[in-house]
Amino acid sequence: MSKRFGGEFSPTGERAGDASRETVTHQRMEVAPFKGRKPLRHGAKINILFLLPLLTIFPAVIFNSGVTQMAVDLAGGAMLLLSAWLTRDGVRAEDAYNERKVARKPAIPRKIFGSIGTGFGVALLVLGGSAFSVSEIVAANVVGFLAAGLHMFSFGLDPLKNKGMEGVDTMTTERVARKIDEAEGLLTQQKDAILLARDRQLEARVDQFQTTVRALFRQVEEDPRDLNAARRYLGVYLQGARDATVQFASLYKDKRDDQLRADYIAFLDDLEQNFASRKETLLIDDRTNFDVEIEVLQDRLRRETQYLERQG
Questions:
Q1: Angle, to 10 degrees, between the axis of helix 227-234 and the axis of helix 258-311?
Q2: What are the pLDDT digits (tens) for 97-123?
Q3: Full-model pTM
Q4: Fewest CB atoms within 10 Å of the CB: 34, 63, 237, 249?
């Protein structure tokens, strides 16, 4: 509950020796709204990609007299909007690919398709205001190729090969990548569910929890042998977190119950601590296994050295 600010000389301020008066305190936010979030790469350029088609569609409807020309302009604007959407999803997919140490290439090269769509859309817009002569069609194609090239230069290509799977058991790495993909899907569903609660602090709290969860993902990717030990965390526990978030959001959006909110935050605290503890346990186990392997090798080298000395 908010309180009126005051000081020593305000009517509600606390003076020395007067403990009966109320002291105003500033309550900090539980979690910063943007903690753990990263800005989207090329965010400004992507916003421009969404804005420019709108600037072409409205003039086409208002000022274009020919039906054919208007249809071509509208098709060009729609193609540019589709290309902007593909480009945005392609950038997000590439960011997710770069964050992971073991990842499969995107199934659909969205940025490449976005470049092709941009060139096609620009060509349609150039052609829409012309008489469709051969020279104008050629000019529209040239401008379209230039637009596609500039788009590809600005946003780059999609990842075209798998990462972290070279020289490693393909079946194991595929299993790890598939399990991480499923876990990421659960995190996305949890994030979509908390948005229904319309509470920025809770959204930030979920982001913080998911950052801890993804740290466990990276640990499993570094050593696929940890997958069996972390399988329950990547499946059952994340499913429980998603289901609890869905139920909480459906209740909290209609009735802003502070106790319900506190219980959900406590639930996330406990779950996050468990994920962090599991990651530390895996690190300790990996270190122990490494030390054991080193000791075995050292002991073998020592025995072989002694054998060679006796033979000499």
A1: 170
A2: 887 766 777 888 999 999 999 999 998
A3: 0.55
A4: 63
